[in-house]
């Protein structure tokens, strides 16, 4: 859950929104295990000239879904994606990005509502066993509390590390009750209807630095986009995800998907 650059600390104060220095747009898999791209063929690595920066998901042969904060400070001409590989630094297929559109209501500046964007590839992907689109929910389709979900990514595997994992990682999470999610973040950040929480039930695990923009997958669909959280794998602070169902009409309007 981080812009396409290394972790940055942000402090925002306003009448209705307080974000602590540890609430970060960063994503990394903590407490996960190696993942096989054959089981997650929609997963891509979004890269700039320095390498992997964020995750994304294939929704069409020419379009990638990701988080809006992943595009901050990054000229489109510097972006490319790697698809079809377990690794972020080798194998698979490379495609350059020719266009990027963030939600018009996303402002950044420490306020992470409407954290969604789409990338237009210069050349379409060729689908196969390791490169396939992910299904999206219907507009306003609900997510049941305690629904099992999976998130994947190449983010760092400890909170202290700044080195991304070269091998794709995965963790299993469950969706949290919305009211509980709001209570956990009360005084730190507003949980809007376009966000929801997901986390581990017992083990220490989370998505964090470098996993931003990746898909939270549940019941055969992408229900969430890795967005932000208070630290990573912090007790009582689950990860916060953009609620894809709330943006279904926006995605359709921008991509036709």
Could you explain the architecture of this structure?
The protein has a domain of 102 residues: Beta Barrel (Thrombin, subunit H). The N terminus is likely disordered. The relative contact order is 0.25. With 257 residues, it is mostly beta strands. The protein has two helices and 16 strands.
Average pLDDT value? 83
In terms of per-residue confidence, which ranges show pLDDT below 50 for 5 or more consecutive residues? Answer: 1-29
Q: How large is the share of residues in beta strands?
A: 25-35%
Secondary-structure-derived class: mainly beta
Query: Under the CATH scheme, which architecture of the domain at 41-133 and 247-255 would be assigned?
Result: Beta Barrel
Give a brief description.
Residues 1-23 form the signal peptide. The chain is mostly beta strands and 257 residues long. It is 6% helix and 33% strand.
List keywords for this structure.
single chain; 257 residues; mainly beta; Thrombin, subunit H; 6-stranded antiparallel barrel; 2 helices; 16 strands; disordered N terminus
Secondary structure blueprint with pairings:
Layout: E1 12-13, E2 18-19, E3 23-24, E4 33-34, E5 43-48, E6 51-60, E7 63-66, E8 80-83, E9 93-102, E10 117-121, E11 148-153, E12 169-175, H1 178-185, E13 195-199, E14 215-218, E15 221-230, E16 239-243, H2 248-255
Antiparallel strand pairs: 1-2, 3-15, 4-12, 5-6, 5-8, 6-7, 7-10, 8-9, 9-10, 11-12, 11-14, 12-13, 13-16, 14-15, 15-16
């Amino acid at each position: 859950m981080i812009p396409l650059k290394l972790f940055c600390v942000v402090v925002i104060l306003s009448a209705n929104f307080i974000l602590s220095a540890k609430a970060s747009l960063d994503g990394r898999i903590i407490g996960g295990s190696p993942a096989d791209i054959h089981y997650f063929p929609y997963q891509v690595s979004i890269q700039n000239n320095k390498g992997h920066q964020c995750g994304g998901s294939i929704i069409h042969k020419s379009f990638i879904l990701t988080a809006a904060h992943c595009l901050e400070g990054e000229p489109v001409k510097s972006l490319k994606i790697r698809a079809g590989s377990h690794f972020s630094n080798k194998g698979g297929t490379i495609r350059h990005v020719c266009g990027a559109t963030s939600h018009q209501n996303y402002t950044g500046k420490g306020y992470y509502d409407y954290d969604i964007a789409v990338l237009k590839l210069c050349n379409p992907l060729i689908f196969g066993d390791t490169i396939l689109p992910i299904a999206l929910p219907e507009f306003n389709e609900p997510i049941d509390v305690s629904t099992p979900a999976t998130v994947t990514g190449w983010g760092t595997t400890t909170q202290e590390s700044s080195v991304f994992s070269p091998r794709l990682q995965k963790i299993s999470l469950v969706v949290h009750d919305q009211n509980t999610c709001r209570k956990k973040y009360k005084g730190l950040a507003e949980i809007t209807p376009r966000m929801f929480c997901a986390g581990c039930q017992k083990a220490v695990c989370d998505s964090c630095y470098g996993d931003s923009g990746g898909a939270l997958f549940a019941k055969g669909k992408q229900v969430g986009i890795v967005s932000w959280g208070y630290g990573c794998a912090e007790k009582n602070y689950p990860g916060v995800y953009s609620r894809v169902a709330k943006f279904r009409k926006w995605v359709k309007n921008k991509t036709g998907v």
